C-alpha cells in the first residue's frame, strides 16, 4: 500500500497545530472512554471523539427513535434518515459504511458493551433505546480499528444507570404523517441494586406512499453492587417491527412526477419487512486492587427478518449470535511515570439460516446455513512520558471466518468459505502545549471483510437482465485494508471550545457495489481509494443565555485507479468520487437558554451533493434545511414535573433527496426526504425518595 501525506497535512503535523473534532454541547469536562477504554479527559486522547449526553438527547425535542435526530451534530459522521423503516439508517464515518445497501456496515456499533455489529461486519441499530440513553460516544480515525473488523468508526451507546429512589416518566409525542410515539420509563434503586426499564411503541403512516411502520421497543438494565469492588450489570433488549412497508427508491423521472409515491413495483408487490430481535448480556466488573481490574461481558441474541422485495422475491433470515469480551486493565509505573495497560480477548459467532422464495406463495428456491466467527486478541498501552507528553499504542490480532453451506442443490452447489487473518496496529502522541490546549498525531491500520450479504452473489452481472448472477458464495472478495493518519488540536478558552482534525485514509481493495437489481446485490473489490478530510468544531457561549455551536466536515474521497467489468454499467474511472459521500457537510445551531427549565434553538444543516453511482453520472443535489426546536419544564409540587416540547423540521418546506441507493441497476437511486414536519410532545415525570 502506498501511503500519501499531503504537504498541508505534513506541515501541520510537524508544527503540532491540529487535533480531533469534538463537537459536544455538554459540560466541557465530560470524560470519554472509547479510544483508551479508560475514562479520560478528551484533551489527553489522541483521537477524534464526540460525546452526546442525555441532556442533549432530551432537549432535541425529537421522537428519540433514530440516531439521525441528534447525531447530525457530529463532524465526520454522515447519518441519513431514509424515511424508510424497512431499511436501517445510512451511517458513514469518514466515508466508511457509505456503500451499505441494507443495515449498517463499516462502522462498529455497541449498546451497553454488547456488540450490535456481527463478526462479519454487518450491524443494525433498530434495538437502540434512545429514551433511556445516558450517553453516545462517536470515535473516528486511526484508533477505531482497535475494535476490530469493519471499524472505520465506532458508536457506543450507554444506558443510564439506576439512581437511588423511584422515578417514573410517561410520554406522548405526535407528529406529521400520523406519526406518534408512546413511552414509559421506570428508574428504581437503593444503592445496592437498581433497575431502569424503558418501553415504547412507535407508529407512522410515513411521508411516502407505502411507508407505514410500527416499532415496539423494550430495554432494561439492572445493576447490582455486589461488593465495594464488584459490580454486575444485566441488560435486556427487545424490538418488534411487525410492519415496515418498503417504498424503495425512485428514478429521476418518478421523483419529478411525484416525490411521495412508492416505487410502482413495491406498491404492486407489497414490498415490506418484519423484524423481531431479542438479546441479553451481562457486564461483570471486578477490582482486584486499586491498580488491577477485570471486565467480562458475555452476550446472546437472535434476530428474525422476513422481507418481501419489489421483485416479489422473499428473503427469510434467522440469526443467532453470541460472544464475549474479556478485558484486563492494569496500572503500573515505568521510570516513575504512569503506564496503563489493557489486554483482552474477543470471541463472536453468528449462525444464519437463510431461505429464499420466488414469491410469497412459492416453495423455497434457496436454502443456506451461513456462519461468521471471530477470535481476536488485543493489547493497548497508554504511557505518560512527561507531564505534558503521552503516548497511546495498540495492536490487535483478528481472525474472521465466513462460510456458506448451500442446502438447495437443484441449481448447483453454491457453498464456499473464506478466512481472513489480520494484525493491525495504532500509535498516537498527545502533547499539552498549555493546560487548556493539546495537539496530537496518530496513525493506524484497519481492515474490512465482506459481510455474508456481500458474499452472497458472484462479482458478475447477467448481461441479459442487468442483475447479479444466481446465488453463489463469492470467495474472490478480499478484505479491504486501510492506513489512516491524523493530526489535530483541542482547546478550551473560557467560554469557547475549538477542535480540529486533518486526516488522510488510503485503502486497498475497497469493497464496492457492482450492481443492485431485482432484489440482489453483487459486490467487488475496486482497487485503491484515497480520502483526505478536515473536521472542525466550535462551541461558544455568547452570554449566560446564548450559545452557538458549529461542526464542519470536508472530505475528498476518490478512486485511484480505473476498473472495468464486463456486463456492468458501473465502470470506475480513476478520479471519480466514491458515491454517497458528500464532500461538505455543516451543522450549526444557536441556542437560547435563559434557565435550566427552558431551551430553544435554531438549527441549520447543509449536505453537499451525493453521487449515486461509481460513474458519477447520477447524483442527488446539495441541500440546506432549517429546523426549530423548544422545550420547557414545569416543576410541580410533590415531586412532579411536566416537560413540553415542540419541533419543526425543514421549516422552509425544502424538497430534497435525503439518501441514495448506490449503483441501483434500474436507476431507482433516490430516496426523497420529508418536507416540513411538525412535532409536539409532553413528558410527565414523578420522583419518590
UniProtKB/TrEMBL annotation:
SUPFAM superfamilies registered for this protein in UniProt: Porins (SSF56935)
Endpoints of the signal sequence: 1-23
Location relative to the cell: Cell outer membrane
Primary localisation category: membrane
PROSITE patterns: TONB_DEPENDENT_REC_3
GO molecular function: siderophore uptake transmembrane transporter activity
Entry keyword Transport: yes
Occurrences of domain TonB-dependent receptor plug (ranges): 43-154
Membrane topology: Multi-pass membrane protein
InterPro entries (UniProt xref): Beta-barrel_TonB, Beta-barrel_TonB_sf, Plug_dom, Plug_dom_sf, TonB-dep_rcpt-like
All copies of domain TonB-dependent receptor-like beta-barrel, residue ranges: 225-651
Domain of life: Bacteria
Keyword Signal: yes
One GO CC term, this protein: cell outer membrane
Family indicated by similarity: Belongs to the TonB-dependent receptor family.
Name the UniProt record assigns to this protein: TonB-dependent receptor
Organism: Limnobacter thiooxidans
